[in-house]
Design a protein that fits this description.
Mito_Metabolite_Transporter, repeat, transmembrane helix, MCP_transmembrane, 323 residues, transport
Length: 323
């Protein structure tokens, strides 16, 4: 990434805003744009990762007397089942916490990546190691701070089972909202319950940000060097799509375990990440850790493209260096 100018050693609100606050703001805006476009794919990914519990008696069934449905065999089947049983608007479940999380979490993890990279380079860190460390640090910090929004979003996207748990009005006929889910979690596990699965969320976010930013950075550098193309939309698109593929593969197993922990109300036997891993492995073997990869990539691929293309544009509009 292009280097910034020297930072002031003393406190300077203007410089702090320019080097930290403004990058966080434009990063949050770019991630929000991508999230708004890809929310349906996020819903499908979550449904594929948790659908087994909604259809297998004794492993977190519906709990409200409803008859289990046949388990979808793939993303297309999950899409058809979701729309048929819950309507097209079900594809936008969890959008409110998703957008809140996108602005805050996305802004922090991408916005802090650049400042941490600069500080790391000043400390003598190597180029690639600097990008990985910066991505891990910014991603983990953002995930730890905003875990409640991810937990609420996940439970809303698996909304049918939330109704069975009483996180909405009796009978399951009314729409469940973020407030009802948050209240149910606090009533059951206390405020600390909002940070359930935070370790896995931090791990996923660290891997996500490190692989996404470092891959984008390196691919863009190689493409511009070997093709002679200018640093424009075409290069951003190619780098983003490849970064999305690497990121999806690296994060899917962690994302799968994290989703199981977020839905632990429907799997009372899961004491932690190790139990969740064993449960997935016993049920589906190693392939189970990659369940939802297609939906995840169809979400992360376009999301990465929209995020970085929008981010480059927003940074240019704000007078910041390109990534």
């Amino acid at each position: 990434m292009a280097a910034h100018g020297s930072w002031a050693t003393g406190p300077d609100p203007t410089r702090a805003w320019r080097h930290v606050g403004l990058p966080i703001a434009v990063s949050g805006a770019s991630v929000a744009c991508a999230t708004a476009c890809t929310n349906p794919l996020d819903v499908l990914k979550v449904r594929l990762q948790v659908m087994d519990g909604a259809t297998t008696p004794g492993i977190g069934g519906l709990g409200n007397g409803a008859q289990p449905r046949a388990r979808p065999t793939g993303m297309a089947d999950a899409f058809a089942s979701l729309v048929r049983h819950e309507g097209p608007l079900a594809l936008w479940k969890g959008l409110t916490p998703s957008l809140i999380r996108a602005v805050c979490y996305g802004g922090l993890r991408l916005g802090l990546y650049r400042p941490i990279t600069v500080l790391r380079e000043r400390g003598g860190g190597g180029s690639m190691s600097t990008k990985v460390v910066a991505g891990c640090a910014s991603g983990a910090f953002a995930a730890a701070l905003l875990n409640p929004t991810e937990l609420v979003k996940t439970r809303l996207m698996a909304d049918e089972r939330a109704r069975g748990r009483g996180e909405g009005p009796p009978g399951g006929g009314a729409r469940v909202g973020p407030y009802q889910v948050m209240r149910a979690v606090i009533n059951e596990k206390g405020v600390a319950g909002l940070w359930r699965g935070s370790a896995m969320s931090m791990t996923r976010s660290a891997v996500l940000t490190a692989s996404q930013c470092a891959t984008y950075d390196e691919v863009k550098r190689v493409v511009t060097r070997w093709t002679g193309l200018s640093d424009g939309v075409t290069v951003h698109f190619v780098a983003s799509m490849l970064a999305g593929a690497v990121t999806t593969t690296a994060t899917n197993p962690v994302d799968m375990i994290k989703t199981q922990l977020y839905m632990d109300a429907f799997r009372p036997g899961l004491a932690g990440a190790a139990d969740a891993f064993v449960a997935v492995w016993r049920r589906d073997g190693p392939r189970g850790l990659m369940r939802g990869w297609g939906a995840n990539y169809l979400r992360l691929g376009p999301q990465t493209v929209i995020t970085f293309v929008a981010l480059e544009k927003f940074r240019s509009m704000a007078g910041l260096d390109t990534l």
